[in-house]
Specification:
Structural class: alpha+beta
Family: Belongs to the outer membrane factor (OMF) (TC 1.B.17) family.
Pfam family, one: OEP
Distance between the termini: 12 Å
GO cellular component, one term: efflux pump complex
GO molecular function: efflux transmembrane transporter activity; porin activity
CATH superfamily of the largest domain: Outer membrane efflux proteins (OEP)
Largest sheet: 6 strands, antiparallel
Protein name: Outer membrane protein TolC
Shape: elongated
CATH architecture of the largest domain: Up-down Bundle
CATH topology of the largest domain: Outer membrane efflux proteins (OEP)
Helix content: 55-70%
Number of domains: 2
Number of strands: 10
Length: 488
């Protein structure tokens, strides 16, 4: 991908450095540039990057983590209360310097929802007054288990959800890139139609001026009426007005297309009429089977159902009795010297059990469970509707694409016939055998036929890329559509 970007730089240097120039673009070139430089493509890549690093973080949660933490140092010069043997209190002065380090290796346990860790600790305290002694406290090795007795096991749910979420993101990235293709085709043909309209307007003005000149000559010899002459004059004025409007639309569409490709405003784009879109033999059933396999909708459905179940499980746990057990065993020692603190070690055992019993919550816990269940039913209904809509969209898109081939063939033939008819009508008018209304009618039909051809060609390409987006399948190469992720 980086090599391709370098190629773009060398192929179009004037565009990238802002020098004023005219750039001729084919539709394939526009598609390649848009997939790299357009804002939509950048958003798609960064969205995938977010999903990738989120998945990496989930994978890291399954692995042991090592942490070194401590305080280096802590100075305490303060007064604190002290209770004497007779029960009275007095304040004593604290003057000490302390340091502590704790090295721990922790492993989450997905199947129980708890964690187990190994620790090694060392603490030093220096008295800054009195006999100014130094003491050490060490825990050479400790094993700690932290385990909720009643838990929804969120990491276990993550093991089921996160892989599907990441696969969904990979396929959604392909869908987004195909959406970039569709948007590029839209901008390309809108600009192309504006260019065609501008050319038509220029040619119509030229023809109107020539027809008016011919009519003025006929007027001198009395073979044309004043009404026809005035109508030709009005036609020339209308042609001038249409040219101004066409030039404005041309500038607007070029700006939109250029902006989408992120070219400098000084670049003047020139494009040509693309070839017909590929003709592929496909059936709605065939495309639907491929789409159901490749489209991210399947992973999205599975993810949503799992997330809904997780919400119900979490709501049930939050509603009821909770208990957490904490157990730590190991060895500990203390001495006035560092080496001595690791001798004559004593057993260290810490066990605690924490409980939480909701007594009165006014139905809040039960309400959360019912809310989660209602959300699950809503998701199921939305999923069913999404599946129906997706199957309908695929079927309609394939049928429209198949019909579009015939419509395009008709438009090509109509364009050719209309062009020939106008040339014939123009020559006959010059000879004086038809009136102004006939030549105007031939011109309108010629212009409309040309626009209809461009419109049908645009629709054909749009349907083609729409089927690619729905199925994530290249029917020309007969392979799945895969866009490689660019890792930052």
């Amino acid at each position: 991908m980086k090599l391709w970007m370098i190629c773009i730089v060398f192929l179009f240097p004037t565009c990238l450095w802002g020098q004023k120039d005219t750039l001729s673009l084919s539709m394939d070139q526009a598609l390649n540039i848009a997939r790299i430089f357009s804002i939509d493509a950048i958003v798609a890549r960064n969205t995938l990057q977010i999903a990738y690093w989120s998945y990496r973080n989930y994978k890291a949660d399954l692995l042991p983590s090592m942490v070194l933490d401590g305080t280096l140092p802590s100075l305490d010069k303060s007064l604190s209360s002290y209770q004497k043997e007779d029960g009275t209190y007095s304040f004593v002065t604290n003057r000490l310097l302390s340091e502590n380090l704790n090295l721990s290796i922790t492993q989450n346990i997905p199947y129980t929802g708890g964690s187990i860790s190994l620790q090694s600790q060392l603490q030093r305290i220096d008295q800054l007054d009195g006999d100014r002694n130094t003491s050490y406290l060490s825990v050479p090795l400790g094993l700690t288990l932290s385990q909720p007795l009643i838990t929804a096991r969120p990491l276990r749910w993550s093991m089921r959800i996160e892989p599907k979420k990441y696969k969904e993101a990979l396929q959604q990235y392909c869908v987004s890139m195909e959406a970039v293709n569709m948007q590029t085709v839209k901008h390309y043909f809108e600009f192309l139609l504006a260019s065609v309209n501008k050319n038509i307007a220029e040619q119509n003005l030229k023809n109107a001026e020539e027809l008016l000149k011919i009519a003025q000559g006929k007027k001198k010899i009395g073979i044309i009426s004043d009404n026809d002459l005035l109508q030709l004059e009005l036609g020339r004025l209308n042609a001038s007005s249409n040219l101004i409007k066409a030039e404005q639309e041309y500038d607007n569409k070029m700006y939109a297309f250029r902006n989408y490709l992120r070219y400098d405003d000084s670049v003047v784009l020139k494009i040509d009429v693309p070839q017909k879109c590929p003709v592929v033999k496909i059936s709605p059933r065939e495309v639907l089977d491929i789409a159901l396999k490749n489209n991210p909708l399947n992973y999205s459905i599975e993810r949503q159902l799992l997330e809904a179940k997780q919400q119900i499980a979490q709501a049930r746990v939050d509603r009821g009795f909770k208990a957490d057990i904490y157990a730590s065993v190991g060895f500990t020692g203390s001495d006035n010297s560092l080496s001595g603190t690791y001798q004559n070690l004593q057993n260290r055992q810490v066990v605690s059990l924490g409980i939480r019993i909701p007594i009165l919550d006014w139905g809040k816990g039960r309400g959360r469970v019912r809310l989660a269940k209602s959300q699950q039913e809503l998701i199921k209904a939305q999923i069913e509707q999404s599946q129906m809509n997706f199957e309908r969209d695929v079927t309609l898109s394939v049928n429209q694409f198949q019909d579009q081939t015939r419509l395009l063939d008709i438009a090509v033939l109509a364009d050719s016939v209309a062009q020939c008819r106008y040339k014939t009508a123009y020559n006959i008018f010059v000879m004086g055998n038809i009136n102004v209304l006939d030549i105007n009618s031939a011109q309108v039909e010629r212009d409309n036929a040309r626009r209809e051809y461009i419109s049908q060609l645009y629709t054909s390409w749009l349907y083609y890329y729409n089927i690619r987006q729905l199925s994530l399948y290249d029917f020309v190469r007969d392979e799945d559509i895969i866009y490689e992720m660019i890792k930052n």
